[in-house]
Specification:
By secondary structure, this protein is mostly helical. The chain has one domain (about 5-65). The chain is built from two helices and two strands, in the order E-E-H-H. It has helices at about 20-30, 40-65; strands at about 5, 15. It has a two-stranded antiparallel ribbon. A hairpin with a 6-residue loop joins strand 1 and strand 2 (about 15). The longest helix is centred in the last third of the chain and has 28 residues, at about 40-65. The protein is flat. The chain binds zinc ion (ZN). Zinc ion binds near residues 11, 36, 37, 39 and 40.
Length: about 70
């Protein structure tokens, strides 16, 4: 499978969907091609992770304060 050039949905820039990544997607069973470039994917993941961490802390803190 050759590398593919795709357009990022978020920033509109071209990015390469490499042969290795295509293989990775296939192994994971993903049938869709990525819609975002690496940077936008990383930014989205970071936002998701930090939001999740904040929620987790706020869920736990009332229990901790009882001690
Ligand atoms: Zn992008």
């Amino acid at each position: 499978m050759p590398d593919k050039t795709l357009i990022c949905k978020d920033c509109g820039k071209e990015f390469v969907f490499t042969e290795g990544e295509q293989k990775f997607y296939e192994e994971k069973g993903f049938t869709n091609e990525p819609t975002r470039c690496k940077e936008c994917r990383a930014a989205k993941k970071e936002r998701f992770n930090s939001g999740r961490r904040q929620n987790h802390e706020s869920f736990n803190s009332p229990r901790i304060s009882k001690y």
